[in-house]
Amino acid sequence: MSFEPATTRFSAVNAEALALAATIAYEVDNTKARRRAAEELGLDQFFEPFEHHNFVIDTEGFVAASKQHVVLAFRGTEPGKIKDWATDALAAPSAFRWFFELAPDVGNVHSGFANSLRDSWAESIRKLLKKAGAGTRRTLWITGHSLGGALAVLAGGACTYDPETLLPLNGLYTFGQPRVGLHDFCNNIGLKFGSVYYRFVNDHDVVPRVPPRAFDYTHTGRLIHFDSDGEPDADSQEQRSFLARAFDTISAVVADFTHSPELIGDHDMTKGYLTCIRNGIESGALAAGKKLPADW
What does the domain layout of the chain look like in residue ranges? Predict the structure, then answer.
């Protein structure tokens, strides 16, 4: 699969490759994941998986590299387990610098997501990125689906604000990602790396509505929404209206999701997101200047 390792603009082929990387991150067999990363994505110079388990959220994924770029891919979560982390208590925000102590005060983030990333970042991910040559010999790309998308955004924050990391980021592509921070944090990352951050949402996927806006959580990045016909729409007003609908509790959102086969299908990484991206490439709808802004 082709890849544009040096670009800092939207790339449909990179979107497909990173969506596939997010899919490969679900492989439980590391040998199979390594083989797929090499054969399907050309990431044949380096491959190391990582995993960290805490009492609620597991942080798993891999770091892999071609001769020109590094991919950090986070595993998401199965639909039946979303209730494990989408709870009112875990959504309590805390300062980003509480998790990355040397970072500046850039705002508040989801405590459950950030706590999980902090432990795995310090123990393994940061070391793997440097070992793979991210930001020095090779450009850095971060991706993830669902929970993995949330961790990908926070990882972008760590690369940008953690003085012990400080790696330049060429691209951040997430799929079906929940909200990860309050307005202050999202405003800051929007200024720092929002121009290379692309957030895909498929039709009525409900996971991007967690945690609810009533908790002061929000999104940032450049939205690409696939409508019910699978057509991509940048900064979709339909999606913004859908996200803005009020829910009193996270439990209400999760109840809707777990009891609706259609919504679960919209959240599916392979049948939902990867299929829409491939269809968009085939039709030309994902080409910048056609369905997407020319300045992307």
Answer: 12-283
